[in-house]
Write a structure and sequence with these properties.
This protein is an alpha/beta fold and about 525 residues long. The protein has helices at about 1-5, 10-25, 45-50, 55-75, 80, 85-95, 95-105, 115-135, 155-185, 190-210, 230-245, 270-280, 330-335, 375-385, 405-420, 465-470, 475-500, and strands at about 215-225, 255, 285-295, 300-310, 310-320, 360, 365-370, 390-395, 425-430, 435, 455-465, 510, 515-520. Helices cover about 45% and strands about 15% of the residues. A six-stranded mixed β-sheet has the order 5-4-3-2-1-11. A five-stranded mixed β-sheet has the order 6-7-8-9-10, with helices on one face. The protein has a two-stranded antiparallel sheet with strand order 12-13. The longest helix has about 30 residues, at about 155-185. The model is unreliable at about 510-520 (pLDDT under 50).
C-alpha cells in the first residue's frame, strides 16, 4: 500500500490514474452494456479522491476523473472533433472538481459514522447537480447520464417512471459510495449497509406500487431504414421503394429517419407529390425529416414534416436543441477555428421555438424529437403532458457507423418510454432503429447498422401519466436542498468557530516537518 501511495505522489501519475478511474463507467453503457458494472464502477475513483493528501488534490482528482469520464462516453466523436474533444472534456471535467473535494471532506482520513452516513446523501446529490449542469444543451446535453446505463433492467425502468433518469443516477452513485465505504471505512459500515438496504427497498417499492401504464389499444407503426446512401436523391429513391412495400399491411403511420429528405419540399414539389402518393398507397401518413435551407424563411432547418394522402398536413416541428459543433458552433466568432480541425458545422442551423404534438388521424397523436433531443428527459415529458400517445425519435448516426454511438443512442428510447409511460419509436437512416413499449421494454427486433429495410411494429397505446410526468425532476430539487442544507450547516459551523476563537483561528495552524505548530503572525 505504501508503494502505491508513493507512486501516486507524482501529480501527473495521479491525474492519469484518476482519468482512467473516471472512464470505467463507460463499460456499463452500450455497446458493452455491462449494466451491473455501474454499481461499482465509481469505487476506484472514490477511493482515490478519498486518499488525496489535501482538499485541492482531491478536487484535481475529481477534475481528472471527469475528464476521463467525458472522453470515454464521447470517444466516438474523436474522428469528427479531433483534438477539440480533449479541450471540451478538460473544460467540462472541471464540473467534478467540487465532487472530488466533497469525497475527501466526508470520507477522508478516519470518518465517523455520522460523516460516512452524510456522504451517502451528499455525494449522490453533488453528482446529480453535475449531471444537471452538463445537461444544458450549450454544454453538450445529457449524453451519458449514469442512470441511462440501466435501460435494459426492468426494476430500474420502474424507478425511472417515478423519478426519471435522475433518480436512477442518484441511486447508482449511492450504491457506489456505500461500496467504497464498506471497502475502506470500518467506522461507517453500518450506515453503508443501511444505505444499500434503503436502495433495495426503494426499488422494490417502485416495482410494487408505482402505477403501471394501462394498455388501451394498439397501432401498427412502420420504420423505414434505407442504410448508408451516397446522395440525397439515391436515399430518397430507396426510402420510396421500401415504403411502397408496406402497402396492404394495415399500417397506421410510417416514420422515416433524420435528414431523410435533403431538399426543401417547397422548392421540390415533385418530392412532396411522391410522398403524398406513398401515403395513399400505404393508407397512412408519412413522417419525414427535412434537412435543408427553407424556401419560406432564411436559414437551414431540421424539421419533422407530416404528409398525408392529400399532401403536407401543415404539422411541422423544427428542431429546437442543436448539437454543439455538429449543427452549430457556440460563440462562432471565438471558436470558428474548429471547422479547420474537424467536421464542425460550416453554417449554423436555425432553431425551432416550440414543441409540437401532431394529429395523424384515427385518434393517434405523436410527439416528434430529432436526433439527440431524445437524450433530454424534459422534452419527452412535455410531449406526454401535451397529449402525445407515441414519442418518435428521428435520428441519423451515419457518421458514427462502427462505433458505440448507434446502440447507445437507441437505448435512450427505453428511458424516455419508461419515464413517460408512452411507447417510443427510434427511427434512423442507418441504424440502430428500435421500438420500446410504454414500460421501456423492447418491442420486436432492433434494426442494426447493416439493415436496409422497412419493419412494422405493433405498438401498444396507453393512457394516464407516470409520477415522473406528474411531478417532474423532483430528485434534482431534493439534491439542491441537500446541498443547500450542507452549505447552511458549514456556514453555521464556521460562524461558531469565528465567534469562539476569533478570525485568526479559522485557519488551522501550519506545522513544521517535526510536527511542531507554527503560529500565524498577527
Amino acid at each position: 500500500m505504501r508503494t502505491i501511495d508513493h507512486w501516486l505522489t507524482s501529480p501527473w501519475r495521479r491525474s492519469t490514474v484518476a482519468a482512467l478511474a473516471g472512464a470505467l463507467p463507460v463499460l456499463a453503457f452500450p455497446a458493452p452494456s455491462l449494466w451491473w458494472f455501474a454499481y461499482v464502477a465509481l469505487v476506484p475513483w472514490i477511493l482515490l479522491a478519498r486518499s488525496a493528501p489535501t482538499g485541492r488534490r482531491a478536487a484535481y482528482d475529481g477534475w481528472s476523473g471527469g475528464f476521463g469520464f467525458l472522453l470515454a462516453v464521447h470517444h466516438w466523436l474523436l474522428p469528427s472533433l479531433t483534438v477539440f474533444l480533449f479541450v471540451i472534456a478538460a473544460l467540462l471535467g472541471a464540473l467534478w472538481a467540487p465532487w472530488g473535494w466533497l469525497v475527501r471532506r466526508f470520507l477522508g482520513g478516519r470518518p465517523t459514522a455520522g460523516r460516512g452516513g452524510a456522504a451517502l446523501l451528499v455525494l449522490p446529490s453533488a453528482w446529480l447537480i453535475v449531471e444537471l449542469v452538463r445537461s444544458w444543451q450549450g454544454l453538450g446535453g445529457p449524453w451519458g447520464m449514469l442512470g441511462a446505463s440501466q435501460w435494459q433492467l426492468s426494476p430500474a425502468l420502474r424507478v425511472a417512471s417515478v423519478g426519471g433518469v435522475w433518480l436512477l443516477s442518484f441511486l447508482i452513485v449511492a450504491v457506489n459510495v456505500a461500496a467504497a465505504v464498506l471497502v475502506s471505512v470500518r467506522e461507517a459500515r453500518v450506515p453503508a449497509v443501511a444505505s444499500l438496504v434503503a436502495t433495495a427497498a426503494a426499488t422494490s417499492a417502485a416495482w410494487a406500487w408505482a402505477p403501471r401504464p394501462e394498455v388501451a389499444g394498439h397501432v401498427r407503426i412502420a420504420v423505414v431504414q434505407p442504410g448508408v446512401m451516397d446522395g440525397g436523391d439515391k436515399r430518397f429513391d430507396r426510402e420510396e421503394q421500401l415504403t411502397r412495400q408496406l402497402a396492404g399491411q394495415d399500417v397506421g403511420l410510417v416514420v422515416w429517419g433524420e435528414s431523410s429528405v435533403g431538399f426543401d419540399l417547397g422548392d421540390r414539389p415533385d418530392l412532396a407529390r411522391r410522398i403524398t402518393a406513398l401515403s395513399r398507397t400505404v393508407g397512412a401518413d408519412v413522417l419525414v425529416n427535412v434537412d435543408a435551407r427553407r424556401s419560406d424563411r432564411p436559414g437551414i432547418y431540421k424539421s419533422s414534416v407530416l404528409i398525408g394522402p392529400n399532401g403536407p398536413t401543415g404539422d411541422r416541428y423544427d428542431k429546437m436543441r442543436l448539437v454543439p459543433f455538429g449543427e452549430y458552433i457556440p460563440a462562432r466568432s471565438l471558436l470558428g477555428w474548429a471547422t479547420s480541425v474537424g467536421k464542425a458545422a460550416g453554417e449554423d442551423r436555425r432553431r425551432g421555438t416550440r414543441q409540437v404534438v401532431m394529429d395523424v388521424g384515427h385518434g393517434l397523436r405523436i410527439g416528434p424529437l430529432i436526433c439527440f433531443e431524445t437524450a433530454f428527459p424534459d422534452m419527452s415529458r412535455h410531449l406526454a403532458e401535451d397529449g402525445a400517445d407515441v414519442l418518435l425519435g428521428q435520428s441519423a448516426t451515419s457518421t458514427f457507423q462502427g462505433s458505440w454511438a448507434p446502440e447507445q443512442h437507441a437505448s435512450l428510447g427505453a428511458l424516455r418510454a419508461a419515464e413517460t409511460g408512452r411507447p417510443m419509436v427510434h427511427a434512423t437512416l442507418t441504424g440502430v432503429s428500435a421500438v420500446f413499449g410504454p414500460s421501456g421494454q423492447r418491442l420486436g427486433p432492433w434494426l442494426g447498422t447493416d439493415a436496409n429495410t422497412a419493419r412494422v411494429y405493433d405498438v401498444p397505446l396507453t393512457h394516464g401519466v407516470t409520477p415522473y410526468v406528474r411531478y417532474g425532476d423532483w430528485p434534482v430539487g431534493g439534491a439542491l436542498l441537500v446541498l443547500a442544507a450542507l452549505g447552511a450547516t458549514e456556514g453555521a459551523r464556521a460562524l461558531r468557530l469565528l465567534r469562539r476563537n476569533g478570525p485568526g483561528r479559522l485557519v488551522p495552524a501550519a506545522r513544521t516537518a517535526h510536527g511542531s505548530p507554527v503560529r500565524p503572525v498577527r
